[in-house]
Amino acid sequence: MNFTNLSERIKQSPPVDFGAVFNNSVTLFQKVWLQGFVTLVLTFVSILPFYLVIYAPMIAFGITDPGTLRHNQMPPVFSLFMIVFMPIFMLAVMTISLCLNAAFLRMCRKYDLREIGKDDYFFYFKKEYLKKAFMVSLVMLGLSFLGVLACGLGIIYLVVPMSLFPAFFAFDRELSAMEVVKASFALGNKNWLMIFLLVTVAGLVSQLGVILCFVGVLFTAMFSKIPIYFIYKDAVGISMDV
Hints:
- Helix content is 76%, strand content 0%.
- It has 11 helices and no strands.
- The chain has helices spanning 3-12, 18-64, 66-70, 76-112, 127-149, 153-163, 165-171, 177-190, 192-206, 217-220, 226-236.
- The longest helix has 47 residues, at 18-64.
- The termini are close together.
- The relative contact order is 0.17.
């Protein structure tokens, strides 16, 4: 679906129904909780090397000069390294997370519509998607930075449209990176309050796994992503092209 048709569907879409989206999310979660767990584990494993790159120099400095860490003083070289590498680190993490979240939403479609096929967690790591994921993540990083500059209040507003990025990225192959962003803002702005409530409540529910000795949260955390699938589905329909 091209951007013009998609924009028209968003304009004509009915308001988001909190009850319907939440109830459907609970039902679907019972079918995809394992896929959510695997997605979360893959996310942790994928970003682990980047954390090692950040902390390895710190550990090395601590071994060679223990007094450095004891007095909370880091060499200028390390500070410069952090300034240069941190944006790259954040961009890499966002790109990986976007691709894995999009794959999870694609699996949500599979189990919701009872499609036949394997669970492909790395579907969006193909070259044709990876470049677009990088560009969307770059925009997300820039928006996050601007949101922080606005005393953090901007982040609250941006939570809604940015939470929709994975859905438009996953199901609308024809869209460019900027069109993914524009479509997300269009749908997000139209239903901002209801989507914000859904994202907030789903986020709280997803943390209930903490009750099970904290390990359970690994199985419930991805529940917070499922309402996005139904918000998108109810607004513009689900594309079967990907």
